[in-house]
Amino acid sequence: MTGRAKGRFQIHAPSAALPIRRNTFLLAACLTCLSGMVQLVVAVSTITLVLVTGVESILGLGPAIFLASGALAALPAGRAMDRVGRVPVLAAGFCSGAAGCSLAAAGCGWDSSVLVIVGFVLVGAASGTVLLARAAAADLYPPERRARGISLVLFGALFGAALGPLVFRPLFAGKELELDALVVPYLAAGAIMLVGLALVLAIRPDPKEIALRIAAERSPEPEGPAAPLSEILRRPTVPAALLAAIASFAVMVGIMNLTGYVVVGHGHHQADVFSVISAHIVGMYALVLVIGSLIDGVGRRPALVGGLAIMAASTIGLVWFESVLWTSVALFGLGLGWNVSYVAASTELADAVRPAERGRLIGFTDLLSGGTGAVLALIGGIVYSEIGVAALAIGATVIAIVPALWIVGRRPPAPALQRA
User: Fold this and answer.
1) Which residues on neighbouring strands pair with residue 5, listed in sequence order?
2) Tell me: the pLDDT tens digits for 100-127?
3) What are the pLDDT digits (tens) for 173-231?
4) Which residues, 6 or more positions from 16, have their beta carbon under 8 angstroms from its beta carbon?
5) Does the domain at residues 20-220+228-409 carry the CATH identifier 1.20.1250.20?
6) Neighbours of 117 (CB within 10 A)
7) Angle at the Cα of 205 (from 199 to 208), degrees rounded to 5?
8) Using alpha carbons only, what angle is made at residue 272 by residues 269 and 274, rounded to the nearest 5 degrees?
């Protein structure tokens, strides 16, 4: 086959000749930058709004703004990816992140809650957009190697775990936690977003081109029009994967974004938060290469259930853990469980659609996941401040384990042909 036109994409080279490894590496490096920026937001977003407003009861509002903005950005960003390709949308996400961090820094310097909130909105939109790199990762690999391909890209976020201790912790060392101390860290996070922008612009050809080439090689028949989202959601494997993705992401980010306040509430220094968050990010990504291959081998459904069960076991431990060490262990387990269930869910969702449908389904999933996470962060902040950490931990455990039990009790769908 000499070529194929699909929308604005012209595909000529066979997929084996395309720079899949190079694009995988660049996508992974993009998630390294996102992970570094998010680590700062996770560590200080709760305290930033408390300091700028003086109202302690809204400690969950900062994470909620961040998560809700990411959720609201995910669906239109996913649809845009299906229309114009993955790279332009990811680049726009990094621009939003750089601008948001700059505004947050200005808000801290000028004691302006309006600037901080607008900055959080833009930073959240950046996170929701750049996380759609999972769709680009799925584009690069055929179904039988897709979980490992997604894992290779997510592995890049592991290196972002080093940015907290190496970049941000020294910026807080020996300083009182006041608004002025937050200006430089937010500016540093913005600079990291600009590095991510340069990396994503180096990705060529666009991953959607590669996905279309893989689909053309596997089936010479032209693809029909993309199905409406309502039809996609009724496909047999989608409901369980969608529920697992929502539950795992929402519990993970809900707890992660409140960790900073919980650790400080136990009497530890703000700088210690970065050690806990780093352990969490290591749990999320350190074993991702092994887990991706494992999921391809044992199947998506067992991984969905197993990952949610690990998350439940980790969150219930927060009822008793107060030290930095054991809180780090619990957050490591939370990240590991998320890794298993979320990679399995993302792979299952990617398998259920064609390239022209992939962005919208993953974007819709992220819309629900991030929205649920925002609600959990906001309610969790109120629960923590009014009742305590035990109630927060028990609630998160229930939210993780109930979907796992539903998936176990649900009849497995009949085997179907995988899509490219």
Assistant:
1) 10
2) 999 999 999 999 999 999 999 999 999 9
3) 666 667 888 898 999 999 999 999 999 999 999 999 888 887 777 665 556 677 888 89
4) none
5) yes
6) 20
7) 105
8) 135
pTM above 0.90, yes or no: no
Cβ within 8 Å of residue 40, ≥6 positions away: 164, 168, 185, 186, 188, 189
User: Helix crossing, 288-298 with 146-154: angle to 10°?
Assistant: 160
Cα 34 from Cα 200, distance rounded (Å) = 12
Contact call for residues 380 and 254 (beta carbons, < 8 A):
yes
Alpha-carbon distances, residue 249 vs 56, 66, 304, 319, 377 (angstroms)? 26, 14, 12, 21, 12
Domain boundaries, the chain: 20-220+228-409
Pairing mode, if any, of strands 4-6 and 9-11? antiparallel
Q: What angle do CA 293, 297, 303 make, to 5 degrees?
A: 85
